[in-house]
Amino acid sequence: MFTIIGERINTTLKKVQAAVAERDAAYITDDVKKQDAAGATYIDVNAGARIGHEEADMRWLIDVVQSATKLPLCLDSPDPNILEMAYGLVGSKPMINSISLEKDRFAPMMRYLAGKECRIIALCMDDSGMPKSAEDIISRARQLVAELEKAGFKRDDIFIDPLIQPMSVDIRNGSMAMDAVAGIVAEVPGVHITGGLSNISYGLPQRRIINRCFLAMMVAHGFDSAIMDPLDKDLMALTTTADMLKGNDNFCMKYIKAVRAGKVVA
Ligand code: THG
Known about the structure:
Elements: E1 3-10, H1 14-21, H2 25-38, E2 42-46, H3 54-68, E3 73-76, H4 80-87, E4 95-99, H5 103-113, E5 119-123, H6 134-150, E6 158-161, H7 173-187, E7 192-193, H8 207-221, E8 225-228, H9 233-245, H10 253-260
Parallel strand pairs: 1-2, 1-8, 2-3, 3-4, 4-5, 5-6, 6-7
(6S)-5,6,7,8-tetrahydrofolate binds next to strand 1 and strand 4.
């Protein structure tokens, strides 16, 4: 199954930030219900943008989001203290976004994760910074999976994020990500691969076209999850279609169901 992590509850988005500042629960509730109806698997919740308010904002958001949907949450913060508080508030097994190999983040996050019932997004980031080649990404993925499995996590609960970087920064960033995904599938079979899809189009015009095209290309290489906007209908239709074409949809049943539900229309 392709795992769709709905990205819209994030205080870096101006409307969300205003709604959070005003404690406008109706706005958040409406957005979450739309993401749920559109087919999100998880609702990402990121309260990091209002400096000094992350803890209170996260607490409020989790309460409002969980009242709006039964979907599990993807708790998005680099801070283990925020994640600790957030974990205590969720009603179903969450996704923790994220851990990385950075020294000051890895050990506190591993302590945090010990004994918890959760899935994990693991970023291919270490102290030397963003990855510079597909080989970098693959070796970091291998290390992350080894450490997380040693700590008792099942491979099916681990989502590797290869760190998608913008085409506007380096024209090789798309093929680096695709080669990395193919390498992770070959070397760490069974692990999930996700990432912030829209990073690819940063700084370019008509971003949604780029995001949609890239999603299809990434799925062809083995990407089986994305942090994305489930309200982009064309993106959702392409996700269902690409996953079917990749061979992940027995008898094309999910595709046909999506067509019948009016979710795939040319
Ligand atoms: N990897 C992981 N987690 C992540 C990211 C990632 N979490 C945050 C982010 N990246 C993914 N989430 C979003 C949420 C919203 C938007 C993009 C990514 C978004 N941005 C618009 C834009 O960039 O133009 C609008 C911005 C605005 O309105 O101000 O919608 O990579 N593990």
